[in-house]
Design goal:
Layout lengths: L8 E5 L5 H10 L3 E6 L16 E5 H7 L2 E4 L6 H7 L7 E4 L14 H9 L3 E5 L13 E5 L3 H13 L4 E6 L4 H17 L14
Parallel strand pairs: 1-2, 1-4, 2-3, 4-5, 5-6, 7-8
Antiparallel strand pairs: 6-7
Helix pairs in contact: 3-4
Length: 205
Amino acid sequence: MGKNFVCLNIAIIGNGPKVAPFAEQLAREGHTVFIGLNEDEHDEVLVSAELENIFFENIEDAGAQADVIYLAVTADKVRQVAYMLGDVRNKVIIDASANIDPKPEEYVATLKAAMAITGAEHMVKSYFLAPEFDAREAGDIFFAGNSKKAKSVAMLLANSLGFKNTYDFGDIDTVPLLEDMARCWYNLAIKQNMGKEIMFKIVKR
């Protein structure tokens, strides 16, 4: 079990390849993790049997038990998941959904959509689901949105995972810029074959 002095109930919604290692990281820091899945997805996410603070739930139950909800789904699934979450108006929601290579007419403003559907006020856009990155302390993490509470919680989680430098990117109007950064990362990491172990870093004189 980890050494984090603030332990939270965290729901991770999604079944992508990074969900299991991310959940294990959080669990080792002492957080209780609920992985929210559809019924047909439960066999797709495998976690270490030694960790007793990771639980598999349906999406609504995962959200109901959590203090923080992390949306680790693709952008086209955010609206569907938002309708399945139930009453999460008082929860902190971190939107980490990615719309990496969209056509202009397919652009999905996921943060605003999820806020409208759930009525949640404490939402923030961020990307720090990078468990394969071995030098997290070297990377910088950015958060965008209107909720100071959501940003504070997201920064706490990032710090607990080893990310030392976190930055307030701006209000909800800056979310598209942050999503552009994600697409830049995808271009460098995947299309330009630089590999996934790259992150952005601000260097100051």
